Amino acid sequence: MLKTGILNPQINSLLSRVRHTNTLVIADRGFPYWPQIETVDISLVDGLPTVLDVLRAVRPNFVIGKAWMAEEFASSNDDATRASFEQALEGITITRQPHNEFKQRIPHAIGLIRTGDTTQYANLVLESA
Description:
28% helix, globular, cytoplasm
């Protein structure tokens, strides 16, 4: 039985299948569904868990080389929210692109973790280093 780290067996399984340069998506509650990729839905209620909760939980055992976000994130959120994401992604190269272009990356991902986050455009595509 696992005592620390990620306890969710579906997330553990998903993470163990990510290899060099594969991508993983962490998405908010309203993110579109792609039937061709595995989705682990851990949404509970509005705001729980958040994209940052999941990022902070997976980051210790997932080497992230790059990250992508929608450029609309910056104009849709306040300074504190933007700072929280920058801090959580410290040391990782972040590319921002229009949301419609960002979504074109999704079908190539190994999987998607859906959260209950209500932060506008909080979705992340993470590439394994």
